[in-house]
Amino acid sequence: MSDPILRVVIGENPPPRLDKALAEVVPEDASLSRSSLGKLIEAGAVVREGGGVVTVLKTKTQVGEVFLITVPEAVDIEAQPEAIPLDVIFEDDDLIVINKPAGMVVHPAPGSETGTLVNALLAHCADSLSGIGGAKRPGIVHRIDKDTSGLLVVAKSDRAHHGLAAQFADHSIERHYLAICYGVPSRADPRLAGISGVAFEGSNVIRLSGNIARHKTDRKRQAVVVNAGRHAITRLRVVESYGTAAALVECWLETGRTHQIRVHLTHAGHTLIGDMTYGGKRTLGPKLLSPAALDAVKTFPRQALHAASLGFKHPVTQETLTFAAELPEDMQQLLTALSST
User: Fold this and answer.
1) Between 76 and 8, whose confidence is greater?
2) How confident is the model at residue 74 (pLDDT cuts 50, 70, 90)?
């Protein structure tokens, strides 16, 4: 069976380049984003009627011109479906919201080829996945670290993938995290006030800003840098303090960079409990916490970070959606131990 061919006509006042012009006129049910169209153009799958194949994205078009787009049938990606239980918070034809457990990698990678969220979604969604970029796969528009728990939204269709990606790009997605850190961030702390990128806002909100780039000597880490990297802003407020030893903080992102919360809090001197990548062998003095609490902190097996809430506009229905996920049991137990001091 040959691949289907889509016939489209360029409308009035087309954008100055072919991929954008086609994106304006392809039918919505074709589920072809501009990036997908760009790949088809470069692959020689777009023909100007009466003029031959066009492979240059910046090709100019005119109103009334007709283009034929060969749309390849969706094919399965290499990752294999695995029947892994998922905590599904919401699901419809276009997207799915998952409460990911700590310890699960989002996408297959060298050393983590199986047991990932993608493997689980391929089994869970099965035939409900439509072609995203020409492949039957879940559209991963954002990620959380392996050892971070909490909410993720994943596209099941190309139109949802395109719409969600646009919201992440313009930072309109609302993401709030709960974290347990060493010490208690406070505007009364002169040390914190003297750190570059730290500012204090109303309602006891602390604003952390600082460009983030890969660490110069450790490729597993990111770092706050000057005159390089990518702009990043995190805001936080203290939810509960446990003496001066630790605090439960709520963090929300204005940007979304790799390890952003972990990097910014480390820069501010408030590394997350359990974060061996950024906290090293940080310890607390015996006078600050009870023996049971000190042991709970010392043995906590991961960074104490949970993606607690997620809000966005449904990319197809335009409905505003908001979801929440309670703290996982391990973080609840850590807070109970800290409260016993």
Assistant:
1) 8
2) low
Taking only the tens place, the pLDDT of each residue in 302-341 is 999 999 999 999 999 999 999 999 999 999 999 999 998 6
How many helices (DSSP H) and strands (DSSP E) are in the chain? Answer: 9, 20
pLDDT in the model for residue 108: 78
Candidates 179, 190, 118; CA nearest to 149 is 179
Quickly list DSSP for 247-277: EEEEEEESS--TTHHHHHHHHTT-PBTT-HH
Q: Which residue, chain included where needed, has tokens 């730290």?
A: 198
Q: Where are the beta strands (DSSP E) in 144-294?
A: 149-155, 174-182, 198-201, 205-209, 211-214, 222-225, 233-242, 246-253
Q: Going by C-beta distance under 8 Å and a sequence separation of 6 or more, which residues neighbour residue 177?
A: 150, 250, 251, 252, 253, 261, 305, 306, 307, 308
How far, in Å, CA of 74 to CA of 54, rounded?
Answer: 22
For 21-73, what is each residue's pLDDT tens digit? Answer: 998 888 766 667 788 898 899 988 999 998 889 999 999 999 999 999 988 76
Please, which residues bridge with residue 211 across strands? 225
- Catalytic residue, chosen from 94, 145, 147, 189, is 145
Rounded to an integer, what is the distance from CA 230 to the centroid of its chain?
16
Spatial distance between the Cα atoms of 117 and 125, rounded to a whole number of angstroms? 12
CA 70, chain centre distance (Å):
32
Beta-carbon neighbour count of residue 259 at 10 Å?
A: 21
Helix (H, G, I), strand (E, B) or coil at 305: strand
Instruction: Decide if 87 is catalytic.
Output: no
N- to C-terminal Cα distance for the chain?
Answer: 70
Q: What distance in Å separates the CA atoms of residue 2 and residue 22, rounded to the nearest whole number?
A: 22
Alpha-carbon distance 176 to 211, whole Å? 20
- Total-model pTM: 0.77
